[in-house]
Amino acid sequence: MLLNLCISLYTSRVVLEVLGVVDFGIYNVIGGIVLFFSFLNGTLSGSISRFFTFELGKNNLENLKKVFNTSLTIQIVLGIIIFFIAELLGAYLIKNKLVIPKYRIETSLLAFHFILFNFLFAFIRISYDASIVAYEKMSFFAYFSIFESVLKLVLTYLLLYIGYDKLVLYSVMLCIISFFGLLGNYLFCRKSFSECRYSFTYDKRFLKEILTFSFLDIYGSVCYMIGNQGVGFVLNFLWGPLLNAANGVAIQVRNAVSGFSNNIVMAARPQIVMSFSRDEIIKMINLVHLTCKYSFILLFIFTFPIIIECDFVLNLWLKDVPKYSTEFTKISLAYILIASIFYPIIIAIQSTGKMKHISIISGSLNLLTIPLMYLISAFTNIPYYSYCAIIITLLFVSGSDLIILQKYIKLFSIKSFFKKVILPCVILCISSSIIPLFIIENFDEGIKRFLFNTIFIVIEICFISYFFIIEREIKDLIFQKI
């Protein structure tokens, strides 16, 4: 996971160097159109993963095959429909609404077509990913992710030596990688799991249940995508494509780090859902607490040095750092850290199959991001102040999720969650910040300060976590592994 994170971050540097600031900003804003539709990826992924893991927990292999065939049929049909809708909408926005230099409009349209194919391949891949995670084949998942990251890095480097338009070539490259990602998962699942041999059929009961679950979740996912992708559009409308380049840098870092975070949580997802399917509620709650806390600690170890030395890291990483990239990156990393605490809460809610409240309430709260950005910009006209709207919105949504989980699972206590998860995480953040901030204020920026601060932070976080946060049972397990 760490290797994949490093490769992804370095690839982002090469991408910015290859495309340049303007094309990098254009790619992110037109890619945002497609990402708007990717809410369905998250919706279907959560739905399919929940039903697949639930049936696996009950050891019902016949139902597993029905879930797989039904879900993949849904993805193929729905993916083709979305493809054509996005083609029409994207062409209109690129030609008439987005702030793109006139001489790059035709090129942007061509790149957009390949971005759509990239989306389609990733969309069809969802059922295969869900199968791999449900069976907890994390080694294949990790190695294949590294292969994809290395392939992306190699192909991105090749763009430096090809004379054709870089924006189009980069879009084609990602499309090719997405296709091979789908092909690799297809071959592995077909060989490893008998129920993953697809036929164009569906089971009426699972079709209804999966679509009902998905449609209940779809409102929340749409709201999340409007709030999330709306950030790029608001920046574009208020400050132009150069701010999209800064946002693009922050998104690249956030995606790389969130991928690391999601892989940690992904390992716990099957156990959380299976525990609920077997009516082991106490075990499920304990798993949620542990996953929330330890995913934050592991993520904090890797992100805090970047936050504290962000200026130096970005200048080391990128040859041309867009304005406001540092501020946007710090805010994005803080966002991911907070989100890592609450993501297992969403998994626990999904395991119950009750999506109505989280979709309507938490989903609606996600819409706060855009008006908050406009409101803050009206008073300050400072881009990074407006960018903080994503964190404010996240706090409202996370609080709502806790209340909903407590409503669905009576044994879950918000008070206990704050005591066992939130409080230790806050204490860790405060206690780990004092000395590194002192070093920042009193020593000159450079590689020596960065290395010293990073080593000190890692040791400090590990020390505080081990002696004051980690439970005795986990300590015993660590000693056994050593």
Largest sheet: none
Approximate strand percentage = under 5%
Q: What is the count of helical runs?
A: 19
Structural class: mainly alpha
Order of H and E elements = HHHHHHHHHHHHHHHHHHH
Report, as a whole number of angstroms, the end-to-end distance: 20 Å
Please give a structural write-up.
This protein starts with a helix and ends with a helix. The longest helix is centred in the middle third of the chain and has 37 residues, at 241-277. With 482 residues, it is mostly helical. Helix 1 (2-37) crosses helix 3. The model has no long low-confidence stretch (mean pLDDT 85). The protein has one domain (2-481). The protein has helices at residues 2-37, 39-57, 61-96, 105-124, 126-134, 138-158, 166-192, 204-239, 241-277, 281-308, 310-317, 325-352, 356-366, 369-380, 383-387, 389-408, 414-442, 447-469, 472-481. 86% of the residues lie in helices and 0% in strands.
